[in-house]
Amino acid sequence: MALKRYYLRVYGLVQGVGFRYYAMRLARSMNISGWVRNLYDGSVEIEAEGIEEDLEGFVLKISEGPPAAVIEKVVKQEIPPQGAKGFEVRF
Length: 91
Hints:
By secondary structure, the chain is an alpha+beta fold. It has a single domain, classed as Alpha-Beta Plaits. Helix content is 26%, strand content 42%. A five-stranded mixed β-sheet has the order 4-1-3-2-5, with helices on one face. The protein is globular, with a radius of gyration of 12 Å.
């Protein structure tokens, strides 16, 4: 099965609500590699890599977010896979 990698930009109330750690726990539980970090404009960016079926499930759950978050939109762009291992919160 081929790996895919997505660059995601998540907009809404996504900072100060545990979103990055939600994304990290979710990714690790779904065998997704990559990273997540806050941006200065209040959005969150994610690079996520995995098997397409797992990756699509991850995007769906990210679109729901943790209970305190309010997701307005998720922008998804496919980018080349990097063969990454693990998932981390970046600062």
